[in-house]
Amino acid sequence: MTSRFNLRRRTAVTIGVVAISLLAGLGWSAGRMLPSLIDSDRICRGVSIGGFDVGDMTVPEARGSLQEHVRQLQTEPIILGLGTEQWRVNPADVGTAIELESALGAARMVGHTGSLVRRLSERSAARKSGVDIPWIVSVDEQALRDLVFDMARVVSIDPKDATLIITAEDEVIIEPSMDGRKLDVERLIYDLRSATLLGTARYVAMPVDVVTANVTTAELEAKGIRRLISKYSTKFNAANYKRTQNIRLGVQKLDGLVLAPGAELSFNDVVGPRVPERGFMEADIIFNSELVPGIGGGICQVSSTLYNAALLALMEVASRVNHSLPSSYVPLGRDATVSYGSIDLKVRNTTKHHVLIRCFVSGNTVTFKIFGDIPDDMDVSIRTEVLERIEPNTIEQMDPTIPTGARVVVEKGSPGYRVAVERVVKVDGAVVSTELISRDRYKPQSAVVRVGTGAPALDLPPVQTQ
């Protein structure tokens, strides 16, 4: 029993010693062979740079293989295209440089750094799936942006709004709109960088965005301003500089105004306060049935001319007051007085389309034209009917400085009136509607006569002077 046990023990010890010796031998061999394999100066198999295989090459070999390609990347021009237009960009113009040495260094590091396990893992992954080192491209950022912004100025086009043009013959023409374009600066910078890495077909389509006009042709056509629908003019004394200045100012405020269907025009809101600070001057106005100096004299002629043009354009009168005395520049019942802060002229566009108000002063005439759309066979007219003539009273003033029986007319006086104003609409010459616009009353102005109560002149008949 004892000797068999000792035999087995000796056998086990011998086997263990042999095993240890074998393992030691293998470890010694691996310690010498693996570092020699992994520390090779060749780039690992499966490694590429920018798509070019450099596996199993030394760094100098890879450099020599890639230098010509890098030269092409740095010198071949890039074509920028937009439709049929093209521009050439040289990479050198923006300081383009391909970092070849950095890429070579990164390729060499695959499977050559870190622990033994990491190196073996990277090498295995490179052989199985490949490892591509991207090109590192550097540019002069300021030069690149300067180039792109220069291109933006060349390529970008401002949109053009549709425009309504009124010819000298009162024809309405719509000049069509045009969309603009705007270069996407940041996108072009990105595309230029990307194109630098293309070996062939180095073409970049200009990234532009369409910029729509604020007012398109369709939008302007939809307003329906098709033709001249009314016109009215009044005359004034152009030699009266201050009154003429006020008329011109008022007209300037109203010219070009567009009213949508249902929109209301307030004369006072548009023209604004008639004060010296805004250029208005002192001229004659009617105040308390008398003609007296006042700031803004002449503005009522502007409002009255507009009033008549609005009536002929089938617009609705929302607010209007006649003068207390007849006006010299329009027929009875056709005037519209205004006073900022108290009396306003308001007219409303009750047509189905927009209307455009054009007005101007030429010589001694102020004219309002309204453009819109009413049927071509429609005719609008305004008629005034005098309902009553109101004779003036006579005020006699006793005057002892003139002979008894003598009469001196100081003021001749003038009659007053009650009138009715109607708007008549005809289609193809036949009356289709008659509308009462207003009933107005104008005060008579009393005559003033000085009656003599003094001593009678010897042998002289009574006289009447003016």
Commentary on this structure:
The protein is of the alpha+beta class and 466 residues long. Helix content is 31%, strand content 33%. The chain has ten helices and 28 strands. The strands form ten sheets. A four-stranded antiparallel β-sheet has the order 13-21-20-14. β1 and β2 form a beta hairpin. It starts with a helix and ends with a strand.
Helix and strand arrangement:
Elements: H1 2-38, E1 47-49, E2 52-53, H2 59-75, E3 78-82, E4 85-89, E5 97-98, H3 100-109, H4 116-129, E6 131-133, E7 137-138, H5 141-155, E8 163-166, E9 172-175, E10 180-183, H6 185-195, E11 203-205, E12 208-211, H7 217-222, E13 227-235, H8 241-254, E14 257-259, E15 264-266, H9 267-271, E16 282-287, E17 290-295, H10 299-312, E18 316-319, E19 346-348, E20 355-362, E21 365-372, E22 378-390, E23 394-403, E24 407-411, E25 416-427, E26 430-442, E27 447-454, E28 464-465
Parallel strand pairs: 1-6, 3-11, 23-27, 24-28
Antiparallel strand pairs: 1-2, 3-4, 5-7, 8-9, 10-12, 13-21, 14-20, 15-19, 16-17, 18-19, 20-21, 22-25, 24-27, 25-26
